[in-house]
Design a protein that fits this description.
The chain is an alpha+beta fold and 451 residues long. It contains 14 helices and 15 strands. The strands form 2 sheets. Strands 7, 8, 9, 10, 11, 12, 13, 14 and 15 form a 9-stranded mixed sheet that branches. Strands 1, 2, 3, 4, 5 and 6 form a 6-stranded mixed sheet that branches. Helix 8 crosses helix 10 and helix 11 packs antiparallel against helix 13. The longest helix has 21 residues.
Length: 451
């Protein structure tokens, strides 16, 4: 039986008692799924048409679930009123790793039915509408890397995340025997994601110790981002069930960070590739402008691909994470890597880390491309050597720098609107303030005796 469900399929499964729980979830600011687990009969009787009420602070909470002040919506001053999670039934599916469970991704709506413009799914929808007005559709794939540990999440927490045991003890990049030690878990991960309706391609070891990447086939942008969010949450749940843990944080240690390379191409209403030149091999002018727009907006849109303090520690020369804002054909030292020919010609944006909110990252890539098209930006020459050694603009060096660029960006306001710019700027400013006031292990090691 397939993963995808219609409402009638769900009614039948609930009648047979093979499904008793429906998860209704939306992606929050951090790309996490938040919402409720509903009794399946209650969902069918009371929530299919009306949706599910939830506190609107879901769109303002920080990573620790704390309420942050300074937002234009959903603070103490507003009384922390509700909004509605409206199910998108195109996403209804079985959850193979949770017995008797179905899941549906929801859109956040105010009580009057208007969209919550600051919600990640709505932000992406707006950029997809801009493409649609030109007769274009975005095809997207995301590549998430993670580090695997033998400790459970609780054990890691109790150790204060020190001396957590890696699932490998040497570099297993591309090795078969080296990845075999984790294959029982990885097989469960691949099968569960396949059975949840995702098109699994391949799993490989990566170059940090205990690092892996599971790849999925491309799809339309919204489907890919929904699948990304489900996979990320599901991978953690599968790890929990198997008494291990994994992390998608962008930079865990001095080794290579966890990336989330985003592959994107455009097709027109007839299915023809937009990026391909008339000869079938070269770039179209549209692709040149789109690619130029990526480079022009990468710094200003930085918080969309690097949303956390930790995200910026990943940007290090010679680390497989890009620093120089350059492009090149099949050049992994560039921020923008161009791959394929003909129908497979696509952009790989290498700036996001695995901590990224996929909806915001894809929205920013589309918005950057449209900025380049609308302003007819000329594409600079490609880099064929080591882009780390080039003298060009760099990604922001910190979240503080990135939020300042975002706040003063006319391109961001034009693409996303002032409400969205203010919302995510406030979140970033408060994160910086919290980090700067925190006492860390680094502080204690330097100051306890020697200071």
């Amino acid at each position: 039986m397939g993963a995808s469900l219609s409402i009638e399929d769900l009614r039948h499964a609930v009648g047979e008692d093979t499904i008793d729980t429906v998860v209704v979830a939306m992606p929050d600011m951090h790309g996490r799924l938040v919402g409720k687990r509903l009794d399946a009969k209650h969902f069918l009787e009371d929530s299919v048409d009306s949706g599910v009420n939830a506190c609107s602070y879901l769109i303002t909470r920080d990573i620790d679930m704390e309420i942050i002040e300074g937002f234009e919506v959903a603070g103490w001053a507003s009384g922390l009123n509700d909004f509605v999670l409206v199910p998108d039934f195109d996403t209804l599916r079985r959850v193979p790793w949770m017995p008797g469970t179905a899941m549906v991704i929801a859109d956040a709506r105010w009580e009057d039915g208007s969209p919550v413009v600051q919600s990640p799914r709505e932000i992406l929808r707006q950029q997809l509408a801009r493409l649609e007005s030109r007769g274009w559709q975005a095809l997207v794939a995301t590549e998430l890397e993670f580090l695997l540990f033998d400790d459970t999440y609780r054990q890691a927490h109790d150790k204060h995340y020190h001396d957590v045991q890696r699932a490998a003890y040497y570099n297993i990049d591309y090795t078969i025997s080296g990845t075999s030690m984790a294959e029982p878990l990885m097989r469960k991960l691949r099968r569960n994601m396949r059975d949840a309706g995702m098109k699994v391609e391949a799993l490989k070891g990566e170059c940090n110790i205990g690092q892996f990447e599971l790849g999925f086939k491309y799809s339309d942008a919204l489907t890919t981002c929904d699948n990304h969010a489900i996979y990320k949450d599901g991978a953690k749940e599968i790890a929990m069930a198997n008494d291990v843990s994994l992390t998608f944080m962008a930079k865990y240690d001095d080794g290579p960070g966890n990336s989330c390379h985003v592959h994107l191409s455009l097709i027109d209403e007839t299915g023809r590739p937009v990026f391909v030149g008339t000869d079938g091999k070269c770039f179209s002018r549209t692709f040149e402008h789109f690619l130029a727009g990526q480079l022009a907006t990468a710094r200003e849109f930085g918080i969309s691909v690097a949303p956390n303090i930790n995200s910026y520690k990943r940007f290090r020369d010679g680390s497989f994470a890009p620093t120089a804002l350059t492009w090149g054909r099949d050049n992994r030292t560039c921020a923008m890597r161009v791959l394929g020919e003909g129908r497979s010609l696509r952009l790989e944006n290498r700036t996001p880390g695995a901590d990224v909110n996929p909806y915001l990252a894809v929205a920013a890539i589309i918005a950057g491309g449209l900025h380049g098209i609308e302003n007819q930006l000329e594409l600079e020459p490609e880099v064929t050597g080591n882009a780390y050694e080039t003298d060009v603009s760099r990604m922001p060096g910190s979240l503080r720098e990135a939020v300042e660029l975002w706040q003063t960006s006319d391109a961001a306001v034009k693409a996303f609107g002032p409400e969205v710019v203010h919302h995510y700027a406030n979140a970033a400013v408060k994160q910086v303030a919290a980090h700067e006031s925190a006492v860390t292990d680094w502080d204690r090691a330097r100051g306890f005796e020697r200071g």
